[in-house]
Specification:
- With about 240 residues, the chain is an alpha+beta fold.
- It has a single domain (about 25-240), classed as paralog of FGE (formylglycine-generating enzyme), CATH 3.90.1580.
- Helices cover about 10% and strands about 20% of the residues.
- The chain is built from 3 helices and 12 strands.
- It has helices at about 95-105, 115-120, 230-240, and strands at about 25-35, 40, 40-45, 60, 65, 70-80, 110, 180-185, 195, 210, 225, 230.
- The strands form 4 sheets. It has a 4-stranded antiparallel beta sheet.
- A hairpin with an 8-residue loop joins strand 8 (about 180-185) and strand 9.
- About 40% of the residues are buried.
């Protein structure tokens, strides 16, 4: 590991599958102390000053700092991005509205931004789900050849679920960086304002706190998808 990188604890990711029985099949139990406001300290940028991506993609982060009181979180989140039954390829061209309808049909809901962030970074507040040093091979990200001939449409470069095993968070949630840019609901927003998290397969920030808020609930593209969350207490009551 490069000098200056904090150690990456592996405990939560190595938890037994028995912990997941607190959640429905295909979901992961996330519990711990979440930091609402994090300072990330980039030690080295990938791209040179003056380039298109200058101070955009960080090669190595120092230790993250929590700048607000932590709060306890306890919920379930899909291990993978949503895919139709019988398919391992995550469903793309999905809007927040599509995500909301599908999650509700499944007895779940669109994840809150805070839930998505915590599932990605863990209590260490990792900038990337896999750690503090960027690895372009870990997740489906940092692809440069992303446009079809003529440049009018991006290529469909989705990766199948589980095909990037290194792209796993401390809680065991997969593909939270790259692959599809996932819709969430901004905490405390009026009328469930959407955001998109994790970026997609282009060269982008791709870290756990990066969000895109320029689009409304109806926007969809080849790069957009989602995963669902659920409240554990209601799930426990429903199973009685």
């Amino acid at each position: 590991m490069p000098q200056g990188s904090p150690p990456v604890a592996q405990g939560p990711a190595l938890a037994s599958s028995a912990a997941d029985t607190a959640c429905p099949a295909g979901m992961v139990h996330v519990a711990g102390e979440y930091c609402p406001k994090v300072r990330h300290n980039c030690l080295k940028w990938i791209d040179a000053a003056g380039s298109r991506y200058a101070e955009y993609r960080c090669a190595e982060y120092g230790k993250s700092e929590c700048e607000a009181p932590r709060r306890h979180m306890d919920y379930c989140i899909d291990r993978d991005e949503y895919a139709p039954a019988g398919s391992n390829l995550p469903l793309s061209e999905q809007s927040w509205t599509d995500a909301n309808a599908t999650c509700r049909q499944l007895g779940k809901r669109v994840c809150l931004q805070s839930e998505w962030e915590f599932a990605c970074e863990g209590e260490e507040m990792r900038p990337y789900p896999y750690g503090f040093t960027r690895d372009s091979s870990a997740c489906n990200a940092d692809n440069y050849d992303i446009y079809e001939a003529g440049g009018a449409r991006i290529k469909d470069l989705r990766a199948t679920r589980g095909s990037h095993p290194a792209c796993t968070s401390p809680f065991g949630v997969r593909d939270l960086s790259g692959n599809l840019e996932e819709f969430v609901t901004i905490d405390g927003s009026r009328d469930s304002r959407p955001a998109m998290m994790g970026a997609w397969w282009q060269p982008s920030r791709n870290h756990c706190r990066a969000r895109q808020t320029a689009h409304n609930k109806l926007y969809k593209g080849r790069e957009t998808g989602f995963r669902c969350c659920a409240d554990r207490p209601s799930l426990e009551l429903a199973s009685r």
